[in-house]
Design goal:
Oligomer: single chain
CATH superfamily of the largest domain: Glucose-6-phosphate isomerase like protein, domain 1
CATH class of the largest domain: Alpha Beta
Number of domains: 2
Largest sheet: 5 strands, parallel
Number of helices: 8
Number of strands: 8
Strand content: 5-15%
CATH topology of the largest domain: Rossmann fold
Structural class: alpha/beta
Order of helices and strands: HEEEHEHEHHHEHEEH
Strand order of the largest sheet: 5-4-6-7-8
Length: 234
């Protein structure tokens, strides 16, 4: 995998507060190599190591995108939900930004039938056929469509298990991460100072609560995906 230049700026990361970790009493000792110092009982992340990890993640994303592989971006915490949907849509990735439904990946044979149900109901709605049904039945199907849109709308075009997952919060997405590990799906994951970097393939030490921090990491990652795909189409 060839290394590329991704214009990762330390000052920009400072402004996005990527360096701010959790309180010192709430930390995982395995994150010690990624911690620069502590200030006012808060751990400060070493941004030089963040930049190296993010560059490695971008190299991998670029390489995998260039081979036409499928990405799944996962972030259900409220700070990340809208950012995940926007970044994934722009980079033509699948995403989950609401509640993670247990077994979504490990029970894929069941999960893959639900997006088809969503597309069928959406077609019924778009063609006006739902409105031709009895009111009670139409209301029930519309509620079902809303639920499918909320939880599965981001994977409605995912026809097989993803080749790689990008996760915005290790603690919040522990079930999703566990399913990826069980299935051998490589993971790129933001790891704050309370996380275990050994659980992911490429840990990116960063503030996983701040909107600006999450957005910066996602934007760099999805830019690499877009660049990889654009070169593949040449």
């Amino acid at each position: 995998m060839r290394k590329r230049y991704w214009n990762i700026d330390l000052e920009e990361m400072m402004e996005a507060r990527v360096h701010l970790g959790h309180k010192t009493r709430k930390w995982n000792p395995k994150m010690a190599p990624y911690i620069f110092t502590e200030r006012r009982d808060t751990h400060i992340i070493n941004l030089a190591k963040t930049a190296r990890s993010l560059s490695e993640a971008c190299d991998l994303a670029f390489d995998i995108a260039g081979r036409g592989k499928q990405f799944l971006i996962i972030g259900t915490k409220y700070q990340a939900a809208d950012l995940v949907a926007s970044a994934a849509t722009e980079a033509r990735c699948h995403y989950v930004n609401r509640k993670w439904l247990g077994g979504m990946l490990t029970n894929w044979s069941t999960t893959e039938t639900r997006p088809q149900k969503f597309k069928d109901l959406k077609k019924e709605q778009d063609t006006g056929r739902l409105n031709q049904l009895p009111k009670k039945e139409a209301a029930m199907l519309k509620r079902q469509l809303d639920q499918l849109q909320k939880y599965l709308g981001g994977i409605r075009y995912m026809t097989s298990l993803p080749d790689i997952a990008i996760i915005t919060n290790q603690q919040e997405e522990s079930i999703a991460l566990g399913e990826c590990r069980t299935l051998g799906i490589p993971t790129i994951c933001l790891v704050d100072t309370d996380c275990d970097p050994d659980l992911v393939d490429i840990p990116i030490p960063a503030n996983d609560d701040g909107i600006a921090s999450i957005q910066l990491i996602l934007n760099r990652s999805t830019s690499a995906i877009c660049e990889g795909r654009s070169l593949r189409s040449l």
